[in-house]
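hey
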């Protein structure tokens, strides 16, 4: 069974005609209802400021709370919109990602698998800056929370969104016990993610040239991530973005539906056969590609979860 975190609050984060729209979570919801309705569903708790401030500067957190508009939409950065319903969406996305850690800690099962079906994405959000549609870095807050609990000594985050997760890399680049591995179009937004960025030996970037197809992707992903990382971990995260699909309008990487199955299975087989997995939704802006790519990702998560 996959443990899903999903909230109706994600329908209230109104971004108008922006690519990171309400339609995305409607598509995800449709998939979950059609194919995964017999799995476990939980409503995320709302994260508090103190929890978020484990990663983000508290002045920044307070500033975001203060800026949420009473009506209409505002821009927190040139790409990142807030509406009156956005705050609860942000807090639910963080909350679900952290609830999964608490669920692992209270579970007697060895192999728990989670998918946090939320919006907005978080991997561009820096400690003190909203960026790239995201305000709080969901995966980083969750991983830092898990690390602070001292039950997980080494954590791996694998980010296959087409964009580099600059926020996640910057947050963890000085923590040798939290590894961050990312495949992404490069050079491209947000500009970071060169192969030379290695942190304390815990950052593994896999830049992909524009036009990269399935075969080249698999070769580069194996060479730069799977074969380079030879450590044991006790918790795996996926920053799961589906904007590297060939149909996606925001980027120029040409992955097929079954590449998302391949990525998920290849990473789990190497690093996570016997450890918990928390996958959090990042990007994916073509609705057909989001549906099919996510379904391929979830099929593998289901295969490696306990019954
Ligand atoms: Zn992306």
């Amino acid at each position: 069974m996959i443990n899903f975190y999903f909230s109706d609050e994600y329908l209230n984060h109104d971004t108008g005609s922006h690519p990171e729209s309400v339609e995305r979570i409607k598509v995800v919801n449709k998939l979950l209802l059609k194919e995964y309705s017999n799995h476990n569903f939980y409503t995320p708790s709302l994260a508090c400021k103190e929890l978020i401030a484990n990663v983000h500067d508290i002045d920044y957190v307070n500033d975001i709370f203060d800026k949420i508009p009473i009506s209409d939409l505002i821009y927190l950065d040139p790409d990142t919109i807030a509406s009156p319903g956005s705050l609860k969406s942000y807090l639910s996305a963080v909350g679900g990602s952290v609830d999964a850690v608490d669920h692992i800690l209270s579970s007697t099962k060895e192999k728990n698998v989670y998918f946090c079906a939320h919006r907005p994405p978080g991997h561009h959000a820096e400690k003190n800056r909203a960026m790239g549609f995201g305000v709080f870095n969901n995966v980083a807050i969750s991983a830092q929370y898990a690390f602070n609990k001292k039950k997980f000594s080494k954590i791996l985050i694998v980010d296959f969104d087409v964009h580099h997760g600059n926020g996640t890399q910057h947050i963890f680049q000085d923590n040798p016990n939290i590894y961050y591995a990312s495949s992404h179009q490069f050079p491209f937004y947000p500009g970071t993610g060169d192969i030379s960025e290695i942190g304390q030996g815990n950052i593994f970037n896999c830049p992909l040239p524009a036009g990269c197809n399935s075969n080249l992707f698999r070769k580069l992903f194996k060479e730069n991530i799977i074969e380079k990382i030879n450590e044991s971990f006790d918790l795996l995260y996926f920053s799961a973005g589906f904007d590297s699909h060939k149909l996606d309008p925001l980027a120029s990487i040409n992955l097929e539906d079954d590449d998302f199955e391949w990525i998920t299975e290849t990473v789990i087989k190497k690093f996570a056969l016997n450890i918990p997995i928390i996958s959090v939704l990042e990007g994916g802006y073509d609705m057909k590609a989001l549906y099919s790519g996510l379904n391929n990702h979830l099929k593998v998560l289901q295969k490696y979860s306990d019954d």
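Residues 161-163, 241, 243, 282-283 surround zinc ion (CB under 6 Å). Residues 176 and 201 are 7 Å apart (CA to CA).
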